[in-house]
Design goal:
By secondary structure, this protein is α+β, with helices and mostly antiparallel strands. Helices cover about 50% and strands about 10% of the residues. It has three domains: about 220 residues, 2-Layer Sandwich (Beta-Lactamase); about 170 residues, Hypothetical protein af1432, CATH 1.10.3210; about 110 residues. The strands form two sheets. Strands 1, 2, 3, 4, 5, 6, 7 and 8 form an eight-stranded antiparallel beta sheet that branches.
């Protein structure tokens, strides 16, 4: 039952005194109590320095301060990043059974305390802001009798709840750079024996002062660690954004791979049976994997844009199909000139009209064949067209023909044009694909130079191995299944699936869901990706949730489950540039 507030007039008659220490026994008890307190403070220091969770640390500071002083309530304020106000972060009150902030799950909704009023005038009216501004503690035996501070809010709280605020100790928290980082406020110290509210004694004040100093160090360390973590994340995300920005066609690839990677990892953590029943990624391992996903393509920062963005086989700085079109127009003009010259020669020697008409028909057929050859070459320039042996033979036959330009005999297609047009799948030559593949080597090298903490030390390994295959035919190190971590296998499935289903690639039409899963199924049979990871990916429905968020509606179709009739061969799909 909540007691009614005491009459302020009675309360101001003076606080109850704590027992004196005149006798030897009382002196011994005081010494023993001080020893216990020193031991307690030592344990507190160790506990504070070991805690890395910021919310738990903030909560611990208030709890430990209250335990040292037997305070009924406590509040912790932290100076906001602007340095202009104090924000409530933890509020505890035993009598009112209130726990806000920290790890309680109950947010603190109280408005912040301004350190400066309008015009930049320091706010000394509020006791917490006064302590923050002066860096001097305030110890009040009874807030209803105190002068110089505005306790309107405190009295209003008491009136609305039936609580009686009395003794108060407000202590500044100063970091190693002598900056104020927070304010600790304790309310209603209690006598250990009677339970009556008493003032905060000198002994308790010194204990809280020591705690506040230790807490400031611990909190600063936590803030520095969190700051470094945020810096690392921001750096990695900015690099990832820079890579995406290099190519408008792969923008968002890294974001989507991170999303998909973490969906698979979280699904593995949720498994109670199957191959991953005994696998559980810790919080640190999840962070490590997420950062590896962010950095898996960091090596592409050195990959030439014209290779990354190569949307047709002949594309370089420009699509060289335009050069071929111009060349074929020139060849066509040459045919016209040849026809006119022949007709003039025949007319000059009096050739029959039927003979001249036959020559004209032959020239027209050659012109039509030229147009058909150009159309065929244009079709070969598209990465989606699989180049069979017959198609390659026809391209070579076209390339072997010659025409005369300014008295010089030249081939219809250059050697480099022929090389590119004969690419069987996709838009990259072997040399260009090697340039793309080298991004994993650069990834290893770049990430290997960063001094990751021990808990994140495998980021280079995971990020640099996402193109390895279980059979050892991957790159860059040709690792086999025995050497491939589960994290790298997860990242590989995520990377391939995103590349197959991406709706923003210039060299292929957006692939349907069923076709992408079919290709991944064949990759499992060929020991290119992990069948267990893919099996979980398929059976759990992770791919569906991802598809609904990231794919076009027309890409989402029915995916056959294991046991269904076997799918038709995947065909000759262009390889995805992941």
């Amino acid at each position: 039952m909540i007691e009614e507030p005491k009459d302020p007039a009675v309360a101001c008659a003076g606080p109850a005194n704590e027992p004196g220490s005149g006798s030897i026994e009382e002196l011994r008890e005081q010494i023993a109590r001080l020893n216990r307190q020193m031991h307690h403070l030592s344990e507190i220091g160790l506990a504070l320095s070991a805690e890395q969770d910021r919310n738990r640390l903030l909560e611990m500071i208030v709890e430990l301060a209250r335990s040292l002083t037997f305070a009924d309530a406590g509040t912790l304020y932290i100076v906001d990043p602007t340095g202009m106000k104090l924000e409530f972060v933890v509020l505890q009150n035993d009598t009112m059974n209130v726990r806000l902030g920290g790890t309680s799950g109950n947010p603190v909704t109280l408005p912040p305390v301004l350190l400066y009023k309008d015009g930049g005038v320091p706010n000394h009216a509020n006791v917490s802001s006064h302590v923050a501004l002066t860096r001097e503690y305030v110890n009040i035996d009874d807030v209803y009798c105190a002068e110089g501070f505005d306790f309107t809010g405190t009295r209003g709280y008491d009136k609305s709840t039936g609580y009686r605020s009395q003794s108060m100790l407000v202590m500044p928290m100063v970091n190693h750079e002598h900056e104020i980082i927070g304010v600790l406020q304790l309310l209603n110290a209690k006598d250990q024996n009677s339970g009556e509210v008493v003032g905060f004694s000198q002994e308790r004040l010194e204990a809280v002062s020591s705690l506040a100093s230790q807490a400031a160090v611990a909190l600063t360390n936590t803030q520095l660690i969190n700051g470094l973590k945020e810096l690392l994340y921001s750096f990695m995300q900015s690099i990832a954004a820079a890579i995406d920005a290099k190519s408008p066609y792969t923008k968002g690839h890294i974001d989507r791979v991170v999303d998909l990677t973490m969906r698979i990892a979280e699904t593995i953590n949720a498994q109670a049976d199957g191959p991953y029943a005994d696998v559980h990624f810790s919080e640190n391992e999840m962070e490590e994997l997420k950062l590896a996903a962010w950095m898996h393509d960091v090596g592409k920062i050195t990959t030439p844009v014209h290779v990354v963005d190569k949307s047709t086989k002949l594309e370089a700085i420009v699509d060289r199909i335009e050069f071929i079109r111009t060349r074929f127009k020139l060849i066509g003009k040459s045919l016209q000139v040849e026809l006119l010259e022949k007709l003039l020669e025949m007319a000059g020697r009096g050739a029959a009209r039927s003979e001249m008409f036959s020559v004209t028909e032959e020239m027209e057929k050659r012109r039509q064949d030229l147009e058909e050859d150009l159309a065929f070459v244009e079709s070969c320039n598209k990465p989606g067209e699989f180049m069979s042996d017959e198609r390659i033979a026809r391209v070579k036959e076209i390339a072997a023909r010659t025409y005369v330009d300014n008295g010089e005999e030249k081939p219809w297609l250059s050697e480099n044009e022929l090389l590119n047009l004969c690419i069987r799948k996709g838009s990259l030559t072997d040399a260009e694909r090697k340039i793309i593949e080298d991004h994993t080597v650069v990834t290893f090298d770049m990430l290997g130079r960063l001094p990751f903490p021990k808990r994140l030390s495998r980021i280079p390994e995971f990020a640099g191995s996402h193109h390895e295959k279980l059979d050892g035919t991957g790159y860059p190190n040709h690792l086999t299944a025995e050497a491939l971590s589960l994290q790298a296998r997860i990242l590989a499935v995520a990377d391939v699936f995103e590349a197959l289903t991406a709706k923003d690639r210039p060299y292929k039409e957006p692939m349907k869901l069923s076709q992408a899963m079919k290709i991944l199924g064949f990759m499992c049979k060929d020991k290119h990706v992990d069948p267990d990871v893919f099996g979980l990916f398929l059976q759990s429905g992770v791919y569906k949730d991802y598809a609904e968020q990231h794919l076009n509606a027309e890409q989402i179709d029915e995916v056959p489950m294991p046991g269904s009739p076997p799918p038709a061969p995947a065909g000759e799909a262009a390889p995805a540039k992941a």
